[in-house]
């Protein structure tokens, strides 16, 4: 008999996390080894349990799902990641795949589809929701050249993506430096480079970019709805 799939679930919404965990735990071929509410705790639990598969929410506060995916797949080659998201933007899907994700499904899918994706990835296959596959194909065919697409083709480094997310969520330069264990000057330099790369005029435009690319959500922005912090 094949051993049950050891699965780590990362989802920042408590109700969805608990509901998914309950449904997955009821499957005889799946064993839930841990639940994470953000990217950092997901990486920590992955290092501890070394699961066969991580079901990863893409948009989480602090450390996002894509960067968490990058860290896990680079450190734990035996662990595969299935991204779960409400976003079908081409840029986000491409970044998830580039980070090492083996699959990408939308939160609008049914449980049967999610289970099918989990089994496919555990068998060393890739899996994309039909809508995601359609988006990628159409984008490839049309080669859109709008200003937004121009921004999307700019490749930010993993560190720059972290800083974009934290800035959009209202963290100041000093706080970001403390979280990432770098100097404030380093954060400021990254910020200048990001603004230059993306041709953005300020934090408002950067926040809009982060929302469009799914690096953060309105729920995560400005930390529980508070006013933006001074920088």
Automatic annotation (TrEMBL):
For molecular function, the Gene Ontology terms on record are: DNA binding
Q: Which residues form a coiled coil?
A: none
> Which domain of life does the protein's organism represent?
Bacteria
Question: Which residue numbers delimit the Response regulatory domain?
Answer: 6-122
- Which UniProt keyword terms apply here? DNA-binding, Phosphoprotein, Transcription, Transcription regulation
Record's InterPro entries?
CheY-like_superfamily (IPR011006), NreC/VraR/RcsB-like_REC (IPR058245), Sig_transdc_resp-reg_C-effctor (IPR016032), Sig_transdc_resp-reg_receiver (IPR001789), Tscrpt_reg_LuxR_C (IPR000792), WalR-like (IPR039420)
Which species does this protein come from? Luteimonas salinisoli
What is the protein's name according to its record?
Response regulator transcription factor
One biological process term in Gene Ontology: phosphorelay signal transduction system
Positions bearing 4-aspartylphosphate: 57
């Amino acid at each position: 008999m094949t051993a049950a799939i050891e699965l780590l679930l990362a989802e920042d919404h408590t109700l969805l996390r608990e509901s998914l965990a309950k449904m997955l735990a009821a499957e005889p071929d799946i064993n839930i080894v841990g639940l994470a509410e953000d990217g950092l705790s997901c990486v920590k639990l992955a290092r501890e349990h070394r699961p066969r598969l991580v079901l990863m929410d893409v948009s989480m506060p602090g450390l996002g799902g894509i960067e968490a995916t990058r860290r896990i797949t680079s450190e734990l080659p035996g662990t595969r990641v299935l991204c779960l998201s409400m976003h079908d933007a081409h840029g986000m899907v491409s970044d998830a795949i580039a980070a090492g994700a083996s699959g990408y499904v939308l939160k609008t899918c049914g449980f049967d589809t999610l289970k099918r994706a989990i089994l496919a990835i555990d068998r060393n296959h890739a899996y994309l929701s039909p809508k995601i596959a359609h988006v990628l194909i159409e984008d490839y065919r049309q080669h859109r050249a709008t200003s937004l697409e121009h921004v999307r083709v700019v490749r930010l480094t993993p560190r720059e993506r972290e800083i974009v997310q934290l800035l959009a969520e209202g963290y100041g330069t000093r706080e970001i430096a403390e979280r990432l264990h770098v100097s404030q000057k380093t954060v400021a330099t990254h910020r200048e480079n990001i603004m230059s790369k993306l041709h953005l005029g300020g934090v408002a435009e950067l926040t809009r970019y982060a929302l469009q690319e799914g690096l953060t959500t309105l729920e995560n922005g400005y930390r529980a709805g508070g006013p933006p912090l001074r920088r």
